[in-house]
Structure formats: C-alpha cells, structure tokens
Amino acid sequence: MMTSAPTILATCKQTRFHLLDENPSNEVDVEGLFITIASNVPESADDPAKAKAKAKSKSKTTGKELISDAHLRLKGGIHYGLLGRNGTGKSTLLRAMADKLIPGIPHVSRIAILQQTGVDDESGGYGKLRLDKTVLDAVLSSDESKNEITRTAEVLSKSFDSEDPLAPVKAIRQVQHQQAERDLFLANKNANLKSGARGFQARKDLKVAEEKLDTARERIDHLTRLAQDAETIDAETVQEDTQAAAEAMQNLQSQLEDAKMEKEARKILIGLGFKEENLTKKVSTLSGGWRMRCMLASVLIQTPDIMILDEPTNYLDLLGVIWLEKYLQELRERSETTVLLVSHDRDFINAVCEEIVIVREQKLTYFRGNLAAYEQDFEEQKLRWGRMKEAQERQVAHMEASIRENLKIGKKTNDDNKLRQAKSRQKKVDDRMGLQVNANGHRFKLNRDLVGYHLTSRAEIDVPQDEKGAVMAIPEVTELRFPGPLVSLEGVTFKYRGNDRVILDDINLVVHIGDRVGIMGLNGCGKTTLVRILNGQMSPSRGKVTTHPRLKVGHYGQHSVEELQEKGRDEPSLTALGLMMAETEGSLNEGAVRGLLSSMGLAGRIASDVPVAKLSGGQLVRLALARIVWSCPQLLILDEITTHLDFHTVTALATALSSFNGAIILVSHDRFLTRSVIEGKRDTEHKLDEEFEGLEEEEDSPETNPRRRSVYVLKAGKLSEQANGVEQFEKSLVKRVQKLLTTR
Q1: CATH number for the domain including 671?
Q2: In this prediction, what percent of the chain has a pLDDT beyond 70?
Q3: CB count, 10 Å around CB of 81?
C-alpha cells in the first residue's frame, strides 16, 4: 500500500486584473482563495485497475481546508508581517505562493522564498543551494532568473568557440525557439483568463504566438536540412543569424556583470555572521543552522517582486537579527520588493513590518500598521464593542421587562394600547437590536443601510476575542529539605584539549531557588558549553562546580525537538501519551500524564491519537517541556526554546515561566522573552496575559522576597552582568550593525 505525499491545492477567482504579459502588476489581488492540504488515496499494488477506478470515481479530493474564501491582497513595495497561531496554514500559504499554485498570482512574477527548514535532495542540493559549491558561489548561483541567463549566455558563447561555422546559427535559433515556447505558454493562459474586447485581443496575441513558434520550429528544421547540403546555405542568412547571436550574447553578458553582486553577497554573508575565511568552505561542511543562514543570504541577494521569509530569525543570534532588521528597513527605501514574513520575534516584526496580515478562522484580515499598533487597536476595539454590547444588553433587558409588564396589564384590563405597545417593543427587540453602526462607521439607519430588507434583523455585535495560544502551566517544584544554592560555579575555566583558545574564562555564578538568570551572547561564544557544565554534562578544565544534593534539573536543549522527531521516525505509531507513559515509568498514571500534557497545550486526541512524527514544531516544543517538568525540577535550563513557536505561544510561555516558583536559566536571543521572564518587565508595546507575574506583582506583595533577576552577556569567555539588562546589550549590537552597514 502506497500513499503519496500531501498536496497543496489552491483555487481562486480570476479576473482581468491577473495580467500575464511581460510587465505584470507589482501587486497581488486574489479573491475567493481556497487552500487545502490533500492526501491522495492509497493505491493498491495488487490491483492497480481497482485503485484507478476508485480514484476516477472520487470527484472531490479529501483533505484539510486551511484557507476558505479569503482575499489575498499585497501592495507593491510594502513589508507585511503574517500572523496566526501554529497550524493555521501560514507556511502552506507561503509555499503555495512561491510555487505559483495560486492561479491569480502573475506567472512571470519573480518570487524568492526562505522556508523554515532546508532538506537535502537527491540532486546534491540543500533546498536551492548546491552542496558541492562554496558558500559564496552557492549564494551567487541561487537566483534562478540569473541562472537561466547564464545558461543561455554559455550556449551562445560555446557556439562561437566551435569550428562549425553554423554553430552560432543553430544556437540563436534554438534560443529563439525556447523563447517562443515561453511566449506561447503565457499567451495561452492570458487568452483563457480574458473575455470581451480584452479576450478578443488576447486570442489574437495567442494566434501570433503560435505562428512565431511555428516559424521558429521551421527555422530549426530548415537549418538541419541545409546542413546536409552545404552548397544550398544562404550566406546572407548565416551572417544575419550570426550577428544576432553575437548581439544576444553581449546583451546577456552585460546582465551578468556580477562584481557588484559578489560584493553585496559578501556583505550579506558577513552581516549574517559568516567570517571572511568561511566563505570559501563547501556548503556540505556546514551545520544545518549555517546552511539556513546561507539560504537566507541567497534570498536577500536577489531582487524579486515578492520576497517570502518564513521564520528568518530562527538560526540568527541577536547581532544577526538586528542586522537583518536594518537591512530590510534599508530595502524598503531602495527597492519596490514586496516582503511577506513570518516570525515569532515580536521586536523584529515591529521594526520591519508596515502592515499586518492575520490568518484567523480560515480568513485573511489586514491592519495598516505594525504589530504594536495592531495589538493596541485590537484592545481598543474589544473595549469599544464590549461596552456597546453591554449597554445594549441592559437596554434589551429593560425593554423585555417593560414588554412583560405591558402584556400583564393589557391582558388583565383588556387595554389594547398596552398590548400594541408591547407588540411594537417586541418587534424593536427582534429587528432593531444589534449592530448600531454601518460599514463606514456611521450611525446605523434602517432605510439607508438595509434598503429592501426593512424587516430583517441586524447583525449581532461581535466583540473581538483574544487570539491566544493554549494556556501553559508548569507544576510547582519539589521542596528542598534544607536551604542552599542550587548550583554554583567558582572560577570555572574550560578549553578543549589540543586547542589553545579558552572557551570559558574564570566564570563565577551562583543560582538560588527563585532566581531568574538570562544568558545572552553571539553564536559560538560558548553559551552551550556553559549550559552543559551547569547541567553536569561536561566538567570544567579548571574551577569548581557545586550543586545541591537534592537538585533536579529540567534541561531544554537546542536539539530537543530534533530528538523527538527522530523518535517519531523510529516509532511511527508513538504518541505523546505513549512516550510520556514510558518515560515516567509508572511514577504517573495515565490520568496524571494526560493532565500534564493538557497543561502544556496537548489535550485530548492530540496527546493520544496523533503520532509524534506528525506533531507540529510548536507541539513538539510543548512535548519537550512536558518531558522535563513532570518530575517537578527546582531548576529549569532553557536553551533557545522559542525557535518553533508562534508569538502567541511565546506569550503563553512567558506567563507560565513568570509564575514558576523554581529557578530559571534562560539562554535566548529573543529580547521579548528575556525582558519578560528574566527582567520581569511588562513591555509597553506588547500585551502580556493578566496572569503574568513580574516586577509590578512583586512590588504589590511586600511580604514576598523579590527575585534576583540578572542578565549576563558571554563574550570572549567572560561572563559580565548587564546593569541595564537586554537594553544595554542591544544598544552595543546596534552600534556594531551600523558600522557594518556603513561599509556597504
């Protein structure tokens, strides 16, 4: 039994807006968009005829509908942030756009995409990167339009190096034939889309394109016949075609002047963290994180009509994130490229995006402004509509009481006036209560806003609901029988054998119960090494590490999700519930395990029926958290935990960690998470849940001892505390980025 991989199916309304000529609109305006993830019906190897008949009889493809009757609208040159909870279809929508699966997107529009992950393919590539090329060459050769020009130029150039005098003629005629085929493809689509006068002209253009292709084919066939009889060759025709080949080659080569492009590629790669000496390394020698940076550089080096970035900050340190912020801000000023990006980093979205696209309930809604403005507007709308609904509910309650009183008096006294009054008021309750403003924001008028439908009730007032991730809760810690520091480092130094470079140099750190410690730094500075020493996985070269005798540590590592994915591949039927039951080894019964998974946001059938191999990245993070907190550890060490989460879930995680009564050591490049969890600050630009416990709550509870909150930066092996926390480190990096950008 074989099952094909899931397929993306996209349909939409198509109008004359969708031009297919050589100068398409720089905007995307697609109405009636439906996107479905469909799994093909399994085919039986024993009876292919039966499987074929079954497939033929199945008129509709089954699958999960992610986008339904939505309006995709992107204006040229605008930078958009795409928001939505994990699983709402953001990455699928981006993939459908990049693969030109949405018919309304112009076929000739150039779209460059960075996906969340790259995959080694059979042709020796990692996504669109060639593994056998150097980092710099792989980035330079990633532009498909440039590659097509390069291939054509090489064909023409080789023809002039050939001893055959007809080689340039053959080459130019072959190039012209390929161009005629592309023109016919576009003309055919154009004719199918248009009607009326435009359709008549499109069909005339189609006929012209067909004639050009026939002429190009005849010229190739004619040349083949002439080559067999050299005496019949027309010297004038050969000269004309040879001249055309030379001019075409010169024109293409002028487009390939890449000295400036190579300089730009170097600047981008260095800005993303590559060192100059690493640019000559083969892509195959890079780790997955550095390959993703290389892929990001290959997208940024292009000048597409639409640039799609799916979680571009996942593998960047804070210096790389700030550099990318500034680069995209500059791109907005100097280019008409439309940018559509997904990111869990709130500060990054806020700095880069001008408008917001929200995926919610299978629809796309838009907001003009950045994320902070959207959240503020959302709260204002929620307050406004909530007050309006409460006022109307009070009015309706008063009117219904009046109706009951009038009916009672009217029936008792046979007062027709009271009965008519009750009936009139009941009609008003039934037909006139609801939305009090029209689509333009003006006061609702029945004869203007419901013309022809005078007795139809208005729409109910819809109060916006918060788009939150599932609430997360972390169990309280196991009490220690006697006080003392959980872990302390005294003069810890570490370096690998045979390596003179000191990774950690005289590190001193003490962590008590309830402490909040944040560790920041650039990639490669030794943060992971420090975490392994804190966790007892490695021993220092010099110095002393002391831990509490009854200490339990919960460690979330950078590869925790990959470990779960590997388990899922090894055991395809393994579920989250089955995994946790096996790992708790009877310490928790099934009910307790279900309760734990539910508190992490993996409730019901997701925990018991969905295999681990099919869980999303965000769900795998939740499962990884459940694996480390079930034993109620006193110390949580979290290393880059936000990589696979949407920003709603990051908010829920920040709230859960804020009330955790143990100690937390957080290694992260996420400024929002570090500010909220470690520094205990409520950002003025980003709303946190009401259950969040930070500095304000500590000040309101004087009987509670304030937590120790410290942000450290690891640099050149030294661990230095930041007096002003994240803000101090961020300002130092902004200065470095400005120096990098001024050398452009």
Answers
A1: 3.40.50.300
A2: 80
A3: 25
Q: How far apart are CA 185 and CA 585, in angstroms?
A: 62
Does one domain contain both 441 and 491?
no
Lowest mean pLDDT among 205-219, 382-396, 647-661: 382-396
Locate 487 and state its tokens: 């872990």
Distance, first Cα to last Cα, the chain? 57
Neighbours of 52 (CB within 10 A): 12
For 538-550, the pLDDT digits (tens) are 888 889 999 998 8
Whether residues 165 and 198 share a domain: the answer is yes
φ/ψ (deg, to 5) at 511:
-125, 125
Instruction: Kindly report the length of the chain.
Output: 744
Q: How do residues 629-641 score in pLDDT, each as one tens digit?
A: 999 999 999 998 9
Question: Residue holding tokens 């780790």?
Answer: 287
In a domain, 106, yes or no: no
Contacts of 485 (CB under 8 A, 6+ apart): 510, 511, 512, 546, 548
Please state, as a whole number, how many other Cβ atoms lie within 10 Å of the Cβ of residue 443: 9
pTM of the model: 0.76
- The amino acid at residue 619 is Q
Any domain includes 45: no
* Residues 512 and 485: beta-carbon distance below 8 Å: yes
| Interval 2-42: pLDDT, tens | 444 568 888 887 655 444 444 555 678 888 888 888 765 44
Structural domain count, the chain: 4
Residue 83 belongs to what H/E stretch? strand 79-83
Q: What is the dihedral of CA 520, 522, 524, 529, to 10 degrees?
A: 0
Q: Is the pLDDT of residue 109 over 80?
A: no
Q: What element of type H or E holds 461?
A: none
Instruction: Find out whether 612 and 568 touch, Cβ atoms under 8 Å.
Output: yes
pLDDT > 50? residue 120? no
Q: Does an H or E element contain 165, and which?
A: none
The answer to whether residues 642 and 675 touch, using CB atoms and an 8 Å cutoff, is: no
Domain termination site, one of 582, 617, 632? 632
Q: Are residues 592 and 721 in the same domain?
A: no
Tokens of 341: 């990006």
With pLDDT > 90 as the criterion, what percentage of the chain qualifies? 17
Residue 344 falls inside a structural domain: no
Distance CA 526, CA 494 (A): 10
Identity of the residue numbered 427 = K
Of 283, 269, 280, 279, the closest CA to residue 131 belongs to 283
Place of tokens 């590629």: 265
* 219 in the same domain as 172: yes
342 alpha carbon, distance to own chain's centre: 3
Provide the 8-state DSSP code for 674: I
Q: Determine the angle formed by the axes of helices 560-570 and 617-629, rounding to 10 degrees.
A: 100
The residue out of 587, 611, 632 marking a domain boundary is 632
Distance between CA 429 and CA 448 in Å, rounded? Answer: 20
Domain identity same for 414 and 524? no
Domain that holds residue 533: 487-551+634-742
Query: Within this chain, do residues 590 and 638 fall inside the same structural domain, yes or no?
Result: no
Evaluate whether residue 700 is within a structural domain.
yes
- Smallest CA-to-CA distance from 297 within 483, 128, 476 is with 128
Indicate the SS3 state at residue 677. Answer: helix
**DSSP state, residue 43:** B
Based on the domain organization, do 166 and 248 belong to the same domain? Answer: yes
Q: Which long-range contacts (CB under 8 A, 24 or more apart) does 349-355 make?
A: 349/81, 349/83, 349/647, 350/685, 351/325, 352/79, 352/81, 352/325, 352/328, 353/79, 353/80, 353/81, 354/78, 354/79, 354/80, 355/78, 355/79, 355/80, 355/81
Q: How many CB atoms lie within 10 A of CB 277?
A: 7
Are residues 540 and 660 both part of a single domain? yes
Angle at which helix 318-334 crosses helix 288-300, to 10 degrees, equals 10
**For helices 617-629 and 576-584, what crossing angle results, to 10°?**
20
